[in-house]
Design brief:
mainly alpha, Helix Hairpins, 2 domains, four-stranded mixed sheet, rod-shaped, binds zinc ion
Length: 237
């Protein structure tokens, strides 16, 4: 029985080790997910900037066409005005000329503003691209780094599982099933009982049960928490 208790303790140690390795392995995922999240945000921002840029470019082309057309009209009016002898006609053309000149001035200011806006969007796109590139490089480096770490952990897990399998072969099947069942609730399915107390739940074990445990003739569970109790190696012997 003492041998079985010892084996269960050893199995628990192996399982604790495996849990720890698996936790370490899983802990890599959130770090990568954060970078991936940043990348998709930057990609979405990049697309929005591109759409904004395309719309502004269309606006600019249209406005430039308007300006060119007005400049054409102004040139025509200037040409015409030199050939007019009639006063009434002269003032009509002059009025149109002045009107178009004012209009073209206004449109050119607007066009200049639009060009500045476009330049600023292009700068934002460049900044965004730079940031995106940096994040992609960071992800690639992290993935490479983590891949080798994960591979090393997987080797450890394989070795641990092999050790576990050979350990379980030595353990009584009934005990093993009980251990597995309890371990679903408590990571420490096997606990030490000393000085009449279960160290799993820190509740006193009934004296009769504790005496039976010390005799070491059967596998006993704590009546309070149901964990498998073993006597500590040092004391109580
Ligand atoms: Zn207990």
């Amino acid at each position: 029985m003492e041998k079985q208790m010892q084996l269960l303790r050893e199995l628990q140690e192996i399982d604790a080790g495996l849990d720890q390795i698996r936790d370490t392995q899983q802990s890599f995922a959130p770090g990568l997910d954060n970078i991936k999240e940043d990348i998709s945000l930057l990609e979405a921002a990049g697309q929005e900037y591109q759409q904004e840029l395309a719309a502004k470019e269309v606006e600019r082309r249209d406005l430039r066409d308007v300006v060119e057309r007005l400049k054409g009209l102004i040139a025509q009016s200037k040409e015409k005005i030199t050939q007019i002898s009639n006063n009434k006609e002269y003032f009509a053309v002059l009025k149109e000329l002045e009107h178009n000149q004012k209009l073209v001035e206004k449109q050119e200011v607007e066009l200049q503003g639009l060009i500045e806006e476009i330049d600023s969007i292009k700068e934002q796109i460049a900044d965004n691209d730079k940031e995106l590139e940096a994040k992609q490089a960071e992800l690639a480096a992290k993935e490479k780094e983590v891949a080798s770490q994960i591979a090393a952990l997987e080797r450890k897990i394989k070795a641990g599982e092999k050790g576990r399998t050979s350990k379980t072969k030595e353990i009584n099947e009934v005990f093993l099933r009980r251990y597995q069942r309890i371990r679903k609730r408590f990571k420490d399915a096997v606990v030490v009982a000393e000085n009449g107390t279960c160290r799993g739940c820190n509740v006193n074990v009934p004296p009769q049960v504790y005496n039976n445990l010390l005799k070491g003739q059967e596998l006993l569970s704590c009546p309070n928490c149901q964990r498998i109790m073993v006597t500590s190696n040092e004391s109580d012997k």
